């Protein structure tokens, strides 16, 4: 990832969390940590911090806490534009590795 972006956002895990949520719309801590092969505790810490500051909101789905951007926060709109621009600057290889993963299960019996 971009070291300048990491320095602006404060840490690598904060950067990864925000880019993941901008790309996929929502997510939970274990999915984010598995995608980037980082510590789940670091991701949870960032999610909690961002939720407390009003950048993110969460809801429970079964036993998982799903996070997404807080659209009621006016600063979030500008942040999302910035993050979208940063996603556009990523290399094709990085995009394919981290930002084009299947989010839903494949239909039963569907050929690969």
Overall description:
It is a single chain. It is built from six helices and three strands; from the N terminus they run ααβααββαα. It has 112 residues and is of the alpha+beta class. A three-stranded antiparallel beta sheet has the order 1-3-2. The longest helix has 16 residues.
Structural class: alpha+beta
Would you tell me the overall average pLDDT?
90
- The helix count comes to 6
Globular, elongated, flat, extended or rod-shaped: what is the shape?
A: globular
The helicity comes to 55-70%
* pLDDT < 50 runs, ≥5 residues: none
Radius of gyration: 14 Å
Strand numbers in spatial order across the main sheet: 1-3-2
Termini separation (Å)? 31 Å
- Main β-sheet: number of strands, strand sense, barrel status? 3 strands, antiparallel
How many beta-strand elements? 3
Task: Detail the topology: elements first, then pairings.
Blueprint: H1 3-9, H2 12-24, E1 26-27, H3 29-36, H4 40-52, E2 56-61, E3 64-69, H5 74-89, H6 92-98
Antiparallel strand pairs: 1-3, 2-3
Defining traits:
112 residues, three-stranded antiparallel beta sheet
Question: Concise description?
Answer:
By secondary structure, the chain is of the alpha+beta class. Helix content is 57%, strand content 12%.
